[in-house]
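Weekly sync notes, structure subgroup
Attendees: PM, AL, DS (notes)

Item 1: joint prediction request from the bench team. They want all two components modeled as one assembly rather than separately. Inputs as received:
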Amino acid sequence: MSDGTKTKSGKEDIAPMLNFGHKWDYAPSLEATDLLHIKPQQGHFIGGDFVPPAEGEYFETINPATEDVISTVARGTKVDIDRAVTSARNAYQGTWSKMAGKDRGKYIYRIARILQERAREFAVLETLDGGKPIRESRDIDVPLAAAHFFYYAGWADKLEYAIPARSAKSLGVCGQIIPWNFPLLMAAWKLAPALAAGNTCVLKPAETTPLTALLLAEVIQQADLPPGVVNIVTGFGDAGAALVAHPGIDKIAFTGSTEVGKVIQMSAKAKHLTLELGGKAANIVFEDAALDQAVEGIVNGIFFNQGHVCCAGSRLLVQESVYDRLMQKLDDRIQTLIVGNPLDKNTDIGAINSRAQLDKIRELVESGKAEGCEFHQSERTLPDKGFFFAPSYFTGVAQSNRIASEEIFGPVLAVMTFRTPEEAVEKANNTCFGLSAGVWTDKGSKIFKVLSQIKAGVVWANTFNKFDPTSPFGGYKESGFGREGGWHGLRAYLEVCSCD
Amino acid sequence: MRLKVNKTHKMLIGGAFVRSESNRTLETVDSSGEFVSNYSRASRKDVRDAVLSARNAAQGWAKKTAYNRGQILYRLAEMLEAKSSSLEDESVDRLLYYAGWSDKYQQLLGTVNPVAVPYFNFSVPEPMGVVGIAASGGLLGIVSLLAPVIVGGNTCVVLAPDDCPVVACEFAEVVATSDVPPGVVNILTGTQSETLPHLAKHMDVNALAVCGSSLSRSELVGLATENMKRLRIFDQTGGPDDQGLSWIEDFQEIKTVWHPVGS
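Output from the run, pasted for the record:
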């Protein structure tokens, strides 16, 4: 308990803290993995069955925390995509679009229920395949995924209320391409509203995280959905490109990078398109904010899921008058974050999803140092194997620095300051992105004034990174268009029926 | 016989009537091919000036109360009524129709979301910002795209249909005398095949509304994608039955707000 009142900046009595050094470490508390039965080789899920890839190729998926191979999965090609789209089309015309809404709803409810029953299995698999802390996959990803299916199941027999004064109809076959940061949850965000609206789907999971989607395919079998209503093709970008270019697709829904989103917008054949792309959210802390709560929100904003979050609060804007106090508290808090084995229930920050992503984070961090920003990092030791990056932040950041304008998608925060609310808004909006933002102040009128001027699709006031199936999510500007979640998210899978 | 005064039709940018900075003009002729008047042929620079005016007007227009925007659209309808022949009755009615939407669409497009955690959560429509409009189909075509765009708090740059520059310029005179703040509506004449590509790739335009353009969908997508413009292509502006809430919704973003309520 030495140096209790000495702060990093050398200033006294700003924020005294207890410091136990390494004398009070947590004993490991590992989640068991023996409930999983992972097949060594897994095919695509097409027409209700697991089928081998047409061209016979498989690829390995690894645990990013250990670099061990977990399984090999089918590498999808144009031929597989074509089969999946045909299967989805047949299911759309043959059963799903003709089925009574209440029956579609019952199938979706079944998926939700089975997901809840097998929740621990999903959580462990998600953590193994993607590297996120078990606490997050167990408490956030899997329960929210089930909640999404529950929410949209209830819409299936209420579509006549979906578009004011118009009849709604389904779109047809949806091609859905999802990222590796929330593999199961993104599958749920895509599939649940599409199915409720009466569409059939071809889903392409990310190449580094295919396993929970394939486990979801088992659940879909278990729920006895008509064959072909949901098809899952695993693979790389070329499989996604084949899906986007397929003339038999009525809608493309993509979550991923802005760069790929633009390519998709240019090449999509489908009439309907929604894109959830990158972000560089400002998290704005005013001097009258509850600073301890703000620190928790900043930490959650940038370090949740290793910062692999499109809506991450990656730009911290702090009012100058509280800068020293806030940064002291933040630095102290960052030192307490536990980085390590994602299966350990104590872990706050797990593994970076892939070597490629780790390289990208390192490259951007180096650019920040080269451009003269001051780098700060937790002093925790990292595991020897696997992909890890200690929680970090930059101070002395200019808006023109790459780390302030490009999406890092890792546990790296760029800190800037402001003097007036006007300056905060201007800096917050000085980005090509517009997905989310955070505002911290105890003054209600200031919250409303600021949030009304911020160009972002989701604004968290005195909180950050909250999600719910009833709450629409999606961006302004180059963060994409369309919304997922809630009534607005349902609308993205329906069109006005001109038949009446 | 009285000697006629030949009017030179000017464009509306930022509330001012201007010629093209390029000084280029085109001519209108009557049915017998006789010269009637000159009008401006907008250049790329005019497009950029107009976008700048629209951007400068965007925040003020979006901040006006819904009631106030409705009053201004109603005034616009009144001014057009005063100027119009029976040919324009439908355009007046359409402006009036959208004037009435000004304080209603929010309650139909916005939601309060019952999240499963102790937070107050709501979603509201917000204007997209600056909308580029390439119109066709005479005055009714212009009004049918413009009204849902501006009633929702957006500002716009209108490329008049190539075949009705005079009607567009006369409408600009109605706009300028209707309490519509300068820059909210900017109207350019000339040739759309020249101006639309510049408007479609301008990085400070948030959305495009296009009806009856010679550019194909894939050409427009190619131009609009760099800054992810929201692209709306209409086959026709249609009759009153086709118009409505969805036309306003097409130019709105949805913003969702969370705040703790305490448990």
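Discussion: DSSP finds nine helices and 13 strands in chain B.
Action: AL to compare against the crosslinking data before next sync.
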